[in-house]
């Protein structure tokens, strides 16, 4: 192995009875690209936080550049050149690219006055070094997600990073953006900078990393050279189970001819154009297409958050105008948004409060106060039905693993008894085993007669879990397929992207 940059020895960390890390060892070499994988809740984020010095560990020690730390703080991490890029990127949206890149350096140098020229020079120099043509004067809020990611990486590089840790950096990126990110990571490697990369997308993990550490239930399963592994082995080591990849197309005998939702020539300038389709009770309809194809904008319109310019929406055989989510809910529509952290959950509220948030008016007692008994009963019912894994419903949603957070959002909507349920990217950030469980749960809801729309940029996800798939590109429907009569290749050809299929 290359010269050791970081060695974590027997790191343990518990949270109120949960052993998040149990005597974990990890070694990162200089210039190494190392991936951390594991199911939701296996301890990846906790390990990252320990390496960044943002949480105290209970036991163990860190050796960085040969120096041992029993108590490692965020300031030590910065001095040792460890930079973490979290999923929210921690950028200042209203500042320019140059300001975002140089702000920490300016603060570190204790400058009282901002030297705009120097700021721009630092940013230009770093951007040129990694060969990314970004305008230093552009506001960060106007950048694509991929370019925001680049700004966060360049900011880390200007702080003399020796190790950049990225937590699920590709979630909101298109395939070509992922390729550019990977070339930046390779460029860092050539400069001797190490990368630790966390992802649930196993195809990406196998593509970019040299070594992989697998965690399960807070314990290390093992360290592997990437060329020793394939999707099958990786999944087995992660879950301890053989997940059958020989898949069967979803076949639904419960589909009924009754239309629950119909769109007729729905259009919104710059978002989508002339969208028409019908969803029937018990049907699962997939909508796929690359990011930016107009899928999410369309879903937001059906949920009353993005009023269309023209066209009609029909619910249960009647034309309706939906101008607010409240109206949508009253019409029996549920919506699981793309970003569960920002739009789907109250992270600093209990699981019980999250599940009951959509139906508080139905939980009133005779004095018009919220009945804590009814609230707890409702939350318990849905938590049990959806197998939410938690010691108590009093736990804050932010402390649940990704798969369980997603179940809480689904539970919250099921409590409203929707007849139409739209799920936007339901399994982003969800591990492979939980993904299979979430798909089974969606099949079960359709079997009970709910009309379901799954929006996803993962072609296999819609192909293997839907009755029908619509492909969208630049705001238009460019293809419609019955899943029983199509293939992955046919769909990929239209969507314009091929990836290794690792869907369950
Ligand atoms: N602040 C906290 N309080 C209580 N429990 C916590 C806290 N943070 C994490 N946990 C628990 O520790 C365990 C490990 O969580 P962690 O977030 O590290 O997993 P992960 O592998 O990053 O999961 P994901 O893939 O969903 O992001 C989980 O059981 C989680 O519920």
Write up this protein.
The chain folds into 2 domains: 4-239, P-loop containing nucleotide triphosphate hydrolases (Rossmann fold, 3-Layer(aba) Sandwich), CATH 3.40.50; 243-332 and 419-426 and 450-504, P-loop containing nucleotide triphosphate hydrolases (Rossmann fold). 34% of the residues lie in helices and 25% in strands. It has 17 helices and 20 strands. The chain has a 6-stranded mixed beta sheet with strand order 6-7-8-3-9-10, sandwiched between helices. A 6-stranded mixed beta sheet has the order 16-17-18-13-19-20, with helices on both faces. Helix 3 (97-108) crosses helix 4 and helix 4 (116-129) packs across helix 5 (145-158). Mean pLDDT is 86; it is low at 498-504. The structure holds adenosine-5'-triphosphate (ATP). Keywords: ATP-binding, Cell membrane, Membrane, Nucleotide-binding, Repeat, Sugar transport, Translocase, Transport. Pfam families: ABC_tran (PF00005).
Strand order of the largest sheet: 6-7-8-3-9-10
CATH class type of the largest domain: Alpha Beta
Instruction: Give the percentage of residues in beta strands.
Output: 25-35%
Q: How many helices?
A: 17
Bound molecules: adenosine-5'-triphosphate
Termini gap: 34 Å
* Main structural class: alpha/beta
Could you name the ranges where pLDDT drops below 50 across 5 or more consecutive residues? Answer: 498-504
CATH architecture of the largest domain: 3-Layer(aba) Sandwich
Helix content: 25-40%
- Total number of strands: 20
Shape: globular
If you consult CATH, what is the topology of the largest domain?
Rossmann fold
